[in-house]
Design brief:
7-stranded antiparallel sheet, 3-stranded antiparallel sheet, 36% strand
Amino acid sequence: MNKKARNGIIAAVAAVLLLLGGLGTFALWSDTETTDSGDVQTGTLDLEAVNAGQWQDISNPTTPVTIDPVTFRMVPGDVLQYTASYLVSADGDNLAARITTTNQGQNVIPAALIPHVTITNIATFDGEAIPSNLITEEDNGKTVDVTVTVNFSRDTPGQVGINETINLSQLQVTLQQERA
């Protein structure tokens, strides 16, 4: 092959490579503008204890007795009640949250007692029951009173539940957001 032909082939290969390299740079026009919408802030949902709370034996509702659950020995027919107050922080459009009593991670009620022990709660503002225990943004800054009731059924048969532990220290008052 002569020198001219070889140089021609090299030039042709270089031209093809340059053309192929340019294929990745093909672009259509585009433009971008900001929305000028501003920033969106997130809301708040929080309960802050106002007092330490108190347990009472209300088995005889006319004469409730303050108790220490650590030393109290519950028997069928007993009803214990915990009362505490919490400051509500509820800030957010479309915010709705329900106050419940939840288990902190360990079993509160032993398996043998589950059919015989119930735990319920009621939330109030200034003595007025909160429908369905539902909190909204309108309740921001209010103090909610929560009453948790533990009822050991008087109909518990035989020796069921003897020497068991109902772990009240694992109960939590929870404010959980709900979305419709």
